[in-house]
């Protein structure tokens, strides 16, 4: 991978990754190891999180398409080596914690809001207001 060309995005545009199909299987241990390393790297490289998270869904059924997509992430990293989050220690660290043990006074029931992933991407709409 040291002599490979870099790419500008971690995932190829329009590529569909699925667990179905009759594509050639790859060594599961090698794929899991690569994805594990990439997951570790996402701590300092949040720009990789979506792509790595997507590929981690195929640990049980990895094929050549998934492996090539993972290698594409490595090619993206090669071109963006200076990207990242820098963690600096400045002064003394102090741990502070807060708790709301009575659920903000809600005695009858505690409400929750479930979330789920959309099946289609939605484009933002903008309106210009004239004053």
Shape: extended
Mean pLDDT, all residues: 84
Q: Count of DSSP E strands?
A: 0
Largest sheet: none
Enumerate how many helices there are, as a single number. Answer: 3
Strand content: under 5%
Runs in which pLDDT lies below 50 for 5 or more consecutive residues are none
C-alpha termini separation: 56 Å
A few lines on this structure:
This protein is mainly α and 131 residues long.
Overview of the molecule:
This protein has helices spanning 28-41, 49-56, 64-79. With 131 residues, the chain is an all-alpha fold. It has a domain at 28-79. The radius of gyration is 21 Å and the shape is extended. The mean pLDDT is 84.
Task: Write the SSE topology.
Elements: H1 28-41, H2 49-56, H3 64-79
What key attributes describe this structure?
single chain; 131 residues; mainly alpha; 0% strand
């Amino acid at each position: 991978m040291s002599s490979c060309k870099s790419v500008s995005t971690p995932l190829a545009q329009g590529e569909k990754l699925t667990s179905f199909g009759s594509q050639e299987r790859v060594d599961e241990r090698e794929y899991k190891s690569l994805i594990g390393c990439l997951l570790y790297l996402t701590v300092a490289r949040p720009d990789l999180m979506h792509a790595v998270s997507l590929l981690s869904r195929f640990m049980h059924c990895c094929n050549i398409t998934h492996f090539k997509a993972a290698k594409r992430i490595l090619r993206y990293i090669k071109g963006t080596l200076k990207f990242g989050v820098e963690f600096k220690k400045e002064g003394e660290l102090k741990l502070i914690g807060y708790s709301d043990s009575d659920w903000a006074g809600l005695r009858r029931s505690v409400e929750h809001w479930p979330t789920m992933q959309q099946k289609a991407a939605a484009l933002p709409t903008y309106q210009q207001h004239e004053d």
